[in-house]
Amino acid sequence: MKPFSKHSGLLVPLDRVNVDTDQMVPKQFLKALTRAGFGKNLFYDWRYLPGEIPNPEFVLNLPRYRGASILLARHNFGCGSSREHAVWAVMDYGFRVVIAPSFGDIFYNNCFKNGVLPIRLPESEIDEMFRAAKEAGSYRLTVDLESQSITDSQGRSIGFEIDPSRREVLLQGLDDIGVTLRHEERITQFENRAHPSAPLYDPASVDVRITSGQ
Amino acid sequence: MTPRTLFEKIWESHLVHEEAGQPSLLYIDRHLIHEGTSPQAFAGLKEAGRKVRRPDLTFAVMDHSVPTVHRELPILDADAMGQFEALARNCRETGVRLFDMNSRNQGIVHVIGPELGITQPGQTIVCGDSHTSTHGAFGALAFGIGTSEVEHVLATQCLVQFKSQTMLIRMNGRRPRGITAKDLVLYIIGRLGIAAGTGYVFEYAGEAIRGLSMEGRMTLCNMSIEGGARAGMVAPDDTTVSYLEGRPFVPRGKDFQVAADHWKSLASDTGARYDRELDLDATQVVPQVTWGTNPGMVTGVTNRVPDPGSFTENGDRKAVESALEYMGLIPGTPIVDIPLDRVFIGSCTNSRLEDLRMAARLVAGKHISAHLKQALVVPGSRVVKAQAEAEGLDRIFTDAGFEWRDAGCSMCIGMNDDRLPSGERCASTSNRNFEGRQGKGGRTHLVSPIMAAAAALAGHFVDVREMNVDGE
């Protein structure tokens, strides 16, 4: 995973509460077999008119926000479906940071697996950023994960909270699985222990196929 | 010993490793996978040269994109076919059991897990699907994960997890006639909002919950994620134990007795502490109908479409305005005056035998409204389908003008051909009324199976309590 330490970029404000992951990547794009190329599908139904013509009214399509790499959103961003495609789309579009008062749990988790930094800020700070983004011609932020601070193009600086272990994962771009596999001996020990909820009966009566029945 | 909650008991018994200031390493007992969110996980595994650690604890099924008609014919959707082939190939290469679309045990992942007894109390269960919360009905800790976590579980049979907070939701009093588990959970979400459960695991308790069958508890826990909670649970009791006895993957004989005793010991201890507790009165619940574009935008069938002006918070007011515009609804319209184009009875929320039975009882000998374009019944699994057919439910539905389909996720998510056309309005027993969920531009109203059945007969919503129903 690409490490994250510091990022400077243009901010785009998406002024909607409860944006769900169905909105971020609609169902028809969930049949892909790879993680690549989802950026063009991000916010598909809002972003395009019939015929995939960019909707000139949707905020991501406004010329002043072209090239934005920081997404500002409202509360409960990324709620709903667990589809990681939503984060792949955010990432592939070019966003490295998403700022909101709160996030859906699964989306929030998924961000850290893909080098996207989700930042929770108090509602009042978010309101202030929305105001600044709408007023300023080009509202840019520098997000420093090391020092847990955000500085805007007007020189204003604020801090943000993040769990130290999650911060470490992003700073180092850690491979989660590799880290877990350092505990392989412990996992094996756990498996060898009498474990009351794990008995597995494998009955002959069930129509299980290991090869395709096509 | 300090009294512990059901959640704490399961959490503590699955800790592989703990370190101060770090998330915990949690063992996963059952990993369910499907064609939609697993291909990239298997690809990642292969790329890193890793193996599936416990194929014996991993179960795969095709459900999201499967056709619900003519499964014997070639599949023309090349992308869906690519998913099916990838899952079959990945299972073949790694030794994971697959219930493919032609297996007689195929069905929606959250229907077949419990049905086969793969789901058991006290387990940790994950799946790359947010409605994995369904399995919490058995007193398991079950939650949805992203594809990277699917890969993590395939490789390690563990997950790195932060401990959630706990919220006890007590539904006091008896569930009134005509009120189902679906109404209870929609009512809860309407009261709490769709983000109240963020960071929490719900435990449902109280007389109205105890009185629910396992099917009802699954409906309830299924929608925990719609309240923001990754997991919802109900303590195992005699209802749980008798549901599981004799199911294919459940221990038998003496082993079953040992397991059953263990399961019942998992219930939260008296005096166990939760981070939040909430008391609601089940006797006050009326049949619920959503009017907006998330499950918290819900009201009683006796009410009207709300006025955005009645919402005080600015963000909420804007969200309500935008929802009503999308839904094509005028504030003040009585819910029972909303006309429908389609009805969908199905999904991991409401497609089990009990759901189909209660809907069938209501439509028996009657016919759906001539104004409807389509009424679909999609059983949650092929086993449910076979049982329903043995009872003659398929004939009741088809005689009443419903289409009787093969098992899958179908019009809940519209990844196959079962989609709600733009601008059309559907009474649906599914779980999400998000914009475009059932089809781009489609307008979804979430209801219980009996409310859907009654609406199909009338062509608009009706208060099911005015009909001859027993509430089950």
What report would you give on this structure?
The complex is a heterodimer of chains A (214) and B (472). The model of chain A is unreliable at 210-214 (pLDDT under 50). Chain A has a 7-stranded mixed beta sheet. In chain A, strands 2-3 form a two-stranded antiparallel sheet. Helix content of chain A is 29%, strand content 16%. With 214 residues, chain A is an alpha/beta fold. By secondary structure, chain B is of the alpha/beta class. Chain B is built from 15 helices and 19 strands. A 5-stranded parallel beta sheet of chain B has the order 5-4-3-6-7. In chain B, a hairpin with a 6-residue loop joins strand 1 and strand 2. The longest helix of chain B has 17 residues, at 78-94. Chain B is globular. Chain B starts with 5 loop residues before the first helix and ends in a 14-residue tail after the last helix. The interface between A and B is large, with 69 and 98 residues.
Keywords:
heterodimer; A: 214 residues; alpha/beta; 7-stranded mixed β-sheet; 8 helices; 29% helix; B: 5-stranded parallel β-sheet; 5-stranded parallel β-sheet; 15 helices; 31% helix; globular
